[in-house]
Structure formats: C-alpha cells, structure tokens
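Table S2 (text version). Query chain:
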Amino acid sequence: MRTFVLSAVAACLLASPALAQSGPPDAAPLPHRQGLSMEMPSFSEDAALQAAVAATTRPEADRARDGERHPFETLTFWGLQPGLTVVEIEPGRAGWWRNILEPYAAATGGRYVPVNRPTEGMGVADGTADMVVVARAFHNWSRDGRVEPYLAAFFTALKPGGVLAVEQHRAAEGLNVTETAPTGYVPESWLIHAARRAGFELEARSELNANAKDDRDHPFGVWTLKPTRTSERDGRALTAEERAALDAIGESDRMTLRFRKPNAAD
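Corresponding structure-token output:
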C-alpha cells in the first residue's frame, strides 16, 4: 500500500505572544510555525479520493493546478473520509473543490452540500455535518461583517467533533486585517482568533500550501497572481517582464487549517 506523507503538517505545540493588530489583546496565544511538530504523520491511501483527484472529468485547467494546490494531501490533512457529509461554502462557478468533493461523496456513500448563503440555511440539519470546507473566502467576509455570523452557522451545522477546514490567502503577521483584506489576504492569527471566538478549537495547521515566493506586494492584490492573472486595471498595465515575474511566483501563500467543534464532553 502506498503511503503519503504530508510535509509540514502543523501540530499546535508551542506558543508565542499574541501578534499586534491580528487578534484581541486578551486572546489565547497562538502556536508559532517555527515550533511545528517534526513528527510527520502518515496517511494511508484513499483510493476513491485518488480517483476523484485524477479523474479526467475534472476540467483540464483544474488538474493543471494540482501541483500548487495539493488536493489529495490537503483533503487528507483535513480528515476527509468515505461516507462523510461535507458542506462547501461558496464553491463558486468554477467549482475547483466541488469537482473533487462531489464525485468523491457519490462514490463513497457520503453527501456533498454546496451552500452560498450560510445565514439563510446550511443545507443540513443542525449538528449533522461532518465537515465544512471554506476556501479563499475570509478576505471577502471580513469586509462586510459576515465572519461572525458565518462561523456561528458553521458551528451550528457541524456535529460535535466535526471539522471546519480552511484554505486562505495568508497576509504577513502584525498587519491589520482591514488593510490586508482588500488585497485578498488575511493574517493567520486573525482567522484563528475569529474561529476560536466562535467556539472552534484549532487542531492543526499545515504548510502544505505555503509559498515563500509570494511577498503579497502585487499591483492588483492576490488576483495579480495565478490563476486570475489580472494584468490591467484603472489605467495601470503590467509590462511583459512584470507579468512573467509574477507568473513565476505561482499561486498565493496560503494557510491550511483544521478546526474542530468540541465534543459535548470536552
């Protein structure tokens, strides 16, 4: 049996002082990435998940991004298993994660539920979802007051022990989210504090989707990078050299987090 080892999977072991402007001053300190566990967990292969990722029914453009988005490793890190009820928030028209999660659920006796307006309904009965997946959305929600009500809706929908799975463009620490969110990035500590305030426990953090080449300083925010590749706006156009340099960065630096709704006995 082939085994996948997920590099840089984060266990929450060591703590550092709370970071300026990233969370409330009385918030619990966060574990720092330098103190991540060096014990690399191994995950047995999920043949159905591998098949869903490799399926030629996925758009070619989706599969071309697998090297930078690591779908098999990321979903395994989040704890995806056969037979789960998985709610994806705002899957989008392209449906990058949906094109994997939906056929996987169908093949394993699970259930895939896409939800666009969580406060209007989560598509499942309260306390029955096994996993809620949120990819690249918190920067939008932070700008119009949706973070707290959405997190509350996720918490209500999940069963005790259920997982909130997050992939999000990551801003540098110490910055104010109101300044970074318009560029598509949010500080990792800010997001962790928000989830903790909603009742979630941070179980693990991973560097699977980290990108040290992304300095987050782009003319049109994160959308300057792949896959959007915005090259012109408001009279500013990238030169061919600038475009090539930005393409060489790849996709954004992203946090990959696994939160858990506490069990009733916790």
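Notes on Table S2: DSSP finds ten helices and 14 strands in the chain. The first strand starts at residue 3 and ends at 5.
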